[in-house]
Amino acid sequence: MTEPFDLSRYAAAVFDLDGTVWLSEQPVPGALDFVARCRELGLTVTFATNATAFSVERITELLIECGLGREGDAVITGGSVVARSLAALGVREAIAEVPPAMAAAIAAEGVEVHAVPDSAPGDGWAAPAPDHALVLGASRAATFGSVERIGHLASMGHPLYVTSLDPGYPALGRMEPGGGMLVAALRALYEVEPYVLGKPSREYADVVRSQLRTDGSVVMFGDSQRADMGIAEHLGADGVLIAPTGRVRGDQSRPTYVTTGLDAEIRIHEEA
Ligand SMILES: [Mg+2]
Fold it and tell me: Looking only at Cα atoms, what is the longest distance across the chain?
């Protein structure tokens, strides 16, 4: 039996960003109070996003500026996890269509990052190699051509790493396009299976776990059932799904609790 939601039962709170605590870097109603209540109750606070446009340092600054973040909070981005995972996989060279901050994070891990070439890439890319990889993130500079070429290289057997399959994220009055939109475009052309390293991957969960600063019980808040409730499952955490419409899908990770927002009641999720 699931007990009614009680924040004081947890030692750590993990928050997704877009659509959960902020929209277009502006706190959503109730978020400032809710995060403050977590701190009063002694929970550690971790922010975990799949976003790749900003570096960890920049997101930390933005969170502090808007009042959600504090010095010392852990911040995890899709870009930081992909960068770390590529290095751990032994990748030395990557052809990447990713935002500049993510390219910098990958390069900082010692991986040589190449832009997508206009024609067939040079030496070493004619066949798959264990230290070569393709990376696709939410790049605003991506073109028809660059997405096709990444897809073509992936169809030749080069492994393709992506941050997310979610096509976009809620922003103020609009959707912010995500890396999953480019993955969908690529898969409209080529039958390739990308490896997801952002949420809800095990790699991402491992990074979150390493930054929780407690071994106690964890609660994860997020608005993407696939990404955020998936991470909750890997962490053995309770998942609170922010579902403004109240809709919960039967074919994705099951939330423990649901709410329409951090300013609303958090209810036990009853299976329909
Ligand atoms: Mg979100």
Answer: 60
